[in-house]
Write a structure and sequence with these properties.
By secondary structure, this protein is α/β, with parallel strands linked by helices. The protein contains 33 helices and 18 strands. The strands form four sheets. A seven-stranded parallel beta sheet has the order 3-4-2-5-6-1-7, with helices on both faces. Strands 8, 9, 10, 11, 12, 13 and 14 form a seven-stranded parallel beta sheet that branches.
Length: 681
């Protein structure tokens, strides 16, 4: 059997390994559980392909995207390596060919999506064909997707245990927390052989800009690079279509790409991009993972990415040939609001949401950096760097100012409001805007009220954004977006430490047309949490989300914040049946506490005056259960009887006596007290 070095030369045509490749190949070939973190374009695929070619049996490669699997299988077959993929995009003939090749023992690398692992037949098939190792490509997806819309990623660890074979996981982006989760999910907490190589891509120029007519900004960036292949990432499918059209109208070859397109159209776009020079693809993040086009000269983000890891992955698609490449990332308050809501509406536990908010803070820190961006980026991944000379802030240093006083005012406002409010409400306090909410809560009487009048609301928004970027404050997932102070802020608040922020972003922060949103900034995090609960209930019941509650009902819940089931029953769209089925679940989201169960008879009265009468009757009955002196024989009324009294509201003992379940001893013991309750109402 040829050595990996010989195969590297004879099959792939490379004379030597890239940094780190040889060590990783040796570990994988030795059967060690392995975790390798390498920079984009660092040659990760070869680190599991070469060992697979050198060992007996089949190596199963778990990969996230059909396009990625097709590309790798195509490239391997072109190099003379037997490989196949079992995907939902296969034709019947393609699938039959793969199974035939497996039965004949010809295939060395079998690519599969994690969803295939959910099938019971998959495990028996893999045992039958003689799997000797597992490779997980883009392993960060175990953390990023495993909690939400790709839960089958969490089955990979089960597969490793069932087959009892070594596993090698590869990714280009994994911070310490993500690495820890990969170890937990894939290796049962037992540390694998870990290889961490540098994240720096010095050939890529980094730049960020605050949104100011983003379409014009993207068109200008593309026009300055006319004829060069590029990718524009957008936050929505609709935006990819409109921006691609705008680029075409400006004379650029451009096409859209997103997950809502027909599979055949997506494949055609992928093939066209690989083949055609100068094409611009305007895409969601569905495009690009595993794209190995070496001459992508630029990547632009029309919207803020989801995280700093996502940003690194996406810009890393440029300049894989080591030639100069450029990036531009646009961002604004609406982007941040969207990304926060996506985190809050996800299905991950609160601990994960807190971590995702921290990651978004890190990305804001990169966007609002005061010095070399590459330093900030590499520091996030645990590397040190000097000024790179290849980013916009090295080209033109930012305009800075001493923000210690402003930040202390903001932190004081956060603490004086008990860390229960978001930036919008806090800015109203600082600028002296006596809104109904501010006055209602008495916040117009705080010492911090109007202490920040010297700055505009947009400028204060930029200050809060930079504070989040420095991780001085974070949204509290348990308080639905309320800002809480981190330990890093305490020295500044105590006057022990000063802080410098960017003045240019404050100056650029101007009043813009108000974006129409479903609810206020203050209520938006709660609405996101209610949507997350609705989504979970809808998936469990296998019904559309609106069947649980429509958006307008959730909006009213977020705005009115009912404190109990009676108040919940007053919300439009919450009928008796839905109150019984879902009321407690949504109330727990709003109040943060479990709701005491109500007797069915009491539930029938929820939201009505009769409900309050019922509660008082129950209290009186309990007090008189053993008579006024507490020494009599126990006596009580049924819940059904109390409901009838609450609904009918008798005014005399005679009327009360005719209520089903009353009469005789009960009327004698409880009658006067019950009538007093009714009269008080």
């Amino acid at each position: 059997m040829p050595s990996p070095a010989e195969l590297l030369s004879s099959v792939f045509g490379f004379s030597e390994f890239r940094p780190g490749q040889a060590e990783i190949v040796d570990a994988v070939l030795a059967g060690q559980n392995t975790l390798a973190i390498m920079p984009t374009g660092g040659g990760k695929s070869l680190c599991f392909q070469l060992p697979a070619m050198c060992r007996e049996g089949v190596t199963v490669v778990i990969s996230p995207l059909i396009a990625l699997m097709r590309d790798q299988v195509r490239a391997l077959r072109a190099a003379g390596v037997e490989a196949g993929a079992l995907t939902s995009g296969n034709t019947e003939n393609e699938t039959e060919e793969v199974f035939a090749a497996l039965d004949e023992g010809r295939i060395k690398l079998l690519y599969m999506a994690p969803e295939r692992l959910a099938s019971g037949a998959a495990l028996s098939m893999l045992r039958r064909v003689g799997v000797s190792a597992i490779a997980v490509d883009e392993a960060h997806c175990v953390s990023q997707w495993g909690h939400d819309f790709r839960p089958d990623y969490l089955r990979i660890g089960e597969l490793r245990r069932a087959l009892d074979v070594p596993l090698a996981a590869f990714t280009a982006t994994a911070d310490a927390e993500t690495r820890a989760e990969i170890v937990t999910r894939l290796f049962d907490g037992e540390a694998p052989s870990t290889f961490l190589y540098g994240f720096d891509r010095p050939n890529i120029h980094l730049s960020f800009a605050v949104k100011d007519n983003p379409r014009r900004q993207i068109l200008g960036f593309a026009s300055a690079r006319k004829g060069q292949s590029g990718i524009v990432y957008c936050g929505t499918r609709a935006k990819t279509e409109t921006l691609a059209q705008a680029l075409r109208e400006a004379g650029h070859p451009a096409t859209a790409y997103h997950g809502g397109m027909d599979a055949e159209d997506r494949r055609a776009t992928e093939a066209r991009f690989q083949r055609e020079d100068g094409l611009i693809v305007v895409a969601t993040v569905a495009f690009g993972m595993g794209i190995d086009k070496p001459d992508i000269r630029w990547v632009a983000h029309a919207d803020l990415p989801k995280s700093i890891e996502g940003y690194y992955q996406e810009i890393g698609r440029a300049g894989r040939d080591s030639a100069p490449a450029e990036t531009l990332t646009l961002y604004g308050p609406d982007d941040i609001r969207l990304r926060r809501s996506q985190i809050d509406e996800g299905m991950a536990p609160n601990e994960r949401k807190d971590a995702d908010h921290a990651r978004l803070n890190a990305l804001l820190g990169l966007a609002e950096a005061t010095g070399c961006r590459r330093q900030v980026l590499l520091r996030y991944f645990g590397e040190d760097a000097t000024d790179c000379g290849n980013c916009d802030l090295c080209d033109q240093p930012a305009l800075l100012f001493d923000a210690t006083d402003a930040v202390r005012k903001a932190l004081s406002a956060i603490l004086r409001t008990d860390e229960r409010f978001g930036a919008g409400h806090l800015i109203d306090i600082l600028t002296g805007n006596a809104t109904a909410k501010v006055v209602q809560r008495g916040h117009d009487q705080l010492p911090t009220f109007a202490v920040g009048r010297e700055m505009s609301k947009p400028a204060w928004g930029a200050v809060f954004r930079q504070m989040m970027g420095r991780d001085l404050v974070r949204p509290d997932t348990e308080r639905y977006g309320a800002l809480r102070m981190t330990d890093a802020a305490r020295p500044i608040l105590r006057g022990e430490q000063s802080i410098t922020l960017r003045k240019d972003t404050l100056q650029a922060a101007t009043s813009r047309p108000i974006v129409k949103t479903l609810v206020s900034d203050e209520d938006a995090p709660l609405l996101s949490a209610l949507k997350a609960r609705r989504r979970a209930l809808a998936e469990a019941a296998r019904v559309p989300a609106y069947v649980i509650f429509p958006d307008r009902t959730l909006i009213e819940m977020a705005e009115k914040r009912p404190a109990d089931l009676d108040a919940m029953a007053q919300i439009n769209g919450v009928g008796a049946k839905k109150l019984e089925s879902y009321g407690s679940a949504f109330l727990a989201v709003i109040t943060g506490a479990a709701t005491p169960a109500l007797h069915p008879q009491r539930m029938r009265l929820a939201g009505r005056d009769a409900g309050m009468i019922f509660d008082r009757l129950s209290e009186v009955q309990l007090q008189l259960q053993r008579g006024p002196d507490g020494i009599d024989k126990p006596l009580s009324c049924t819940q059904n009887t109390l409901r009838h009294i609450a609904e009918r509201r008798p005014t005399t003992l005679s009327e009360l006596d005719h209520i089903p379940g009353m009469g005789g001893a009960r009327t004698e013991r409880f009658g006067a007290a019950f009538l007093s309750v009714i009269c008080d109402q």
